[in-house]
Design goal:
There is one protein chain. The chain contains 5 helices and 8 strands. It has 155 residues and is α+β, with helices and mostly antiparallel strands. It has a domain of 102 residues.
């Protein structure tokens, strides 16, 4: 599996959270270290696996969390940041071949599958806004990170 080039992204600062303690309002903002600066994608034709990776200002090791039969998330061991998303895309690609879907439809199906799994994983999680911001960065660049010719050549 060969990864594509890193593509710079501009991620808006997620909504700050506020708490009041002893009459003082405290606002919590995400650090620039918590927001991705680049994204890239890769596709392994042998396994049918699509991987989207996020690059941050620093690096760390991750744990892989299997969300369902199709999606696994790479979550930073120390920071809990979203470092990557893995999708078993064989079924989506097979369906696309039989229905003659175009590359945009295939990409949209993949991103929808990833979005649903991420939403289920992050629901009620304190880092839900951070995960959503990272996903939106990937969504903005989906036609660049999911443009592998082997992936979209479904005809």
């Amino acid at each position: 599996m060969t990864s594509g080039p890193w593509i710079r992204v501009s991620v808006p600062q997620p909504k700050a959270s506020e708490q009041q303690s002893k009459g003082v309002v405290v606002s919590y903002h995400y650090s620039p270290h918590d927001l991705p600066v680049a994204v890239r994608g890769s596709f392994d034709a042998g396994s049918g696996r699509v991987v989207i990776e996020f690059k941050y200002l620093d690096t760390e090791v991750f744990d892989t969390r299997q969300i369902d039969d199709y999606v696994a998330l790479r979550i930073g061991k120390n920071s809990a940041r979203l470092l990557g998303m893995e999708l078993n895309a064989r079924e989506i690609i097979w369906e696309a071949r039989t229905s003659r879907s175009d590359s945009k439809q295939i990409q949209d199906k993949m991103m929808s599958k990833l979005s649903g799994a991420l939403r289920r994983y992050s629901q009620g999680n304190k880092d839900q806004e951070m995960y959503s911001a990272a996903f939106q960065a990937a969504k903005q660049k989906q036609n660049k990170i999911l443009s592998d010719d082997r992936l979209v050549a479904v005809g």
